[in-house]
Structure formats: structure tokens, C-alpha cells
Amino acid sequence: MVKGNTHLWSAEKIRRKVKSERIRKTITSNLKYYRLGSFIPDSGFYCSIKSVNYISYWLHGKKGNLTNKIIFSMLDKIKKTHDQKDLALMFGYITHCALDITFHPMIFYLTGNYSDPSPLKLRKARYEHHRLETYIDSKFNTSLRIHEVASAKLIDDTSFITALSECMGGKKKKYKKALRNQLWFDKHSHSKLVYFFVSLFPSLKPIAGMMYPSLKKDRYVFGKDITYLDPINGNKHRASFQQLFMKGFSLSEKMIIAADKYVHNEITKKQAQKIIDGKSLDTGKVGVPLSKIRFTM
User: Fold this and answer.
1) Using CB atoms within 10 A of its CB, is residue 234 exposed (0-12), middle (13-18) or buried (19+)?
2) In this structure, are residues 93 and 43 in contact, taking their beta carbons and an 8 Å threshold?
3) Could you tell me which of 248, 212, 282 has the C-alpha nearest to residue 13?
């Protein structure tokens, strides 16, 4: 997961990039819901309850499931209700998907196997994954914090939890608690005291990587461009962080336009699904689960 604050920062960049007046009006009139959508796919990761934690893994397509199921479930509701809060939420949600699809293949390659069978290697990979994302946020986003722009109660104004229940089965009301935890954690992510406490426990090391004080332990050194292998097929890539952001912004705009046109009956679902095609937010590929990662540093 690209860090929540980075997702928020990216969503702000994207909304200023979108040219469609209709889309801009929807976002501007429902800005807090658009912002909420930009980081809500990660909320489940902040809950210790396994069934709630799994929701975010499902939203990311961990097992190869299509990640567009929840998107089209929401869009189909919006076609009937014309709820602009829900639409703005999904525009923000789509920006999250696009950024993860773009960044995660690089991040997984650089930081290790997130599905490693060895508990120690897995813990290290998760720590490095989170810390690299924290580093990226510190380099590009200097002002936006999710806890300052959203509250957990906003989710009650949307159809998101209902859609989750319909897509996954069972009641998903505890996702709101996870969202509340996410916002609390962000509020304290700069705290040296909380970081010190978390660092005392080896099992909590991955959480320590999500905190900004972790960057002072030792510093990353990256050139302008980064060479990395696709973690699935091993294909070689070279790009700067800036280039990846621009690629993610462009994909976001393309997907948002498709969602907007679908809701307004200007394109068919089949046409929309060619653009919002359900790629894994981890591997960046349709139907390819996290467990298929083969290439890491």
C-alpha cells in the first residue's frame, strides 16, 4: 500500500488534472468523500481482527480476485441513486487503485517477498515495504495528513459498507472501526514515543516501518532513476519516482473518466471494464495473486 498520506496527496494532484467539468464538480462538491475514497482501501490493515484485516487484502486482490468487483457494485448503485457522495468516494477510490497498480510492482521487488513462508523474512519484507512507502511520502508530500481531512463517521453517509457486505458476504460494519484506527495511527505516526514503544516488540516491527521516525535509523539512497524487475515475470524496468507518479495520475484520470461515463450511460459496462479491468493492486496484473511473486532483491 502506498502510504495513506501519499494517496491523499496524489488524489489532490489528480483532481486538478482532470479536465471534465462534470467530474470536477462532483469532486469539488463532495471533496471530503473523494479524499476518504483515496485511502479507504487500506483501512482494514489497521485492524487486528482477521476477518476485517482480510477485507483490505481482498480489496487489493491478494488471492487473484478481481479488484473491480467493489467498484462496479458501487457504480451500479450510483446509476440508480445518483448519489454524488458515493460517486466522489469512488473517484477517490479509483485513484488509490491506480497508484497501487503503478507503484507496488517496484516496491515489492525492492523490499522483499510479502508472502515469504519464513516468518522472519516476511516480517523484514513488510517492515521494509512500509518504510519505503514512508520514505516516498516524506519526499513528495509535506503537508497532507489523512486524519486532518476525514473522520470515520463519513463512511456512514456512503453505501461502501453495504457494497462490501454484498460483494464479500456477511456484515462488514467493523470496517468503520478499522478506519478509525487508521486515522488514529496517522495522527501519531510522527510520535517518537509511540515509535519507541512499537519498536520494543519484534512482532510489531512492520508497524514501526509505517512511522516517520523509522526514517532516521538509516537513510535510503536512490539515484534519479531506479532499476527494478517485475516481481512476477522478471522483466526489467527503469523509472524515477516522479515518472511512476505521472503514470499513476494518468491511469487514475483514465479510470475516473470511464467510471463517470458508465454511471451516466455514455458507455457500456463491458467498455468500462476494459479500462477498469480489475488488476491486482499488488502485482499490477489481472488475476495474478501476491503469492506468485518470484523476483525480489
Assistant:
1) exposed
2) no
3) 248
Query: What is the rounded distance in angstroms from the CA atom of residue 210 to the CA atom of residue 182?
Result: 11
37, 88 contact by CB (below 8 A): yes
Residue 158: which residues within 8 A CB-CB, separation 6 or more?
Answer: 33, 36, 83, 85, 86, 89
Residue numbers of the chain with a pLDDT score lower than 70: 1-2, 217-219
Whole-angstrom Cα distance, residue 89 to residue 31?
9
Q: Where is 38: in which H helix or E strand?
A: helix 31-39
Q: What does pTM read for this prediction? A: 0.96
**pLDDT tens digits, 202-253:** 888 889 999 999 988 666 777 789 999 999 999 999 999 999 999 999 999 9
Q: Are 259 and 77 in contact (CB under 8 A)?
A: no
Return the pLDDT at 8: 98
The H-or-E segment that residue 237 falls in is: strand 236-239
| DSSP class per residue in 23-37 | HHHHHHHTHHHHHHH
pLDDT for res 191:
96
